[in-house]
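Format is chain and fold; as here:
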Amino acid sequence: MPRPLKHVFVCTQRRAEGHPRGSCAQHSCDELMNAFLGEIQKRNLFDKIAVTNAGCLGPCGFGASVLVYPEGVMYGKVTKGDVTEIIEDHLLGDKPIERLKVPDFVWS
């Protein structure tokens, strides 16, 4: 298996309804995960881009969350409608999507 150039982690955290932190499951993370996998498969990019479901990535208030390595770029409030842009611009074009990046304070 070739080493991927990019690795995408999609938060698929599920918490009980009413939990104070919420969860990405409340923000259609399953649809988001399926959209990434479907687009990667359609474009036959499995040798370049790895996609992994993850537990909590941290900024629950910005769900659904996506983390891209090796850059360490965290995206928030991502929808399945954003997947094509993330793949084309960031994963293939090396240009992160500024409007989707979480605020810097998330990392403090």
User: Anything to note?
Assistant: The chain has one domain: 6-107. The CA atoms of residues 34 and 80 lie 8 Å apart. The helical segments are 29-42, 83-92.
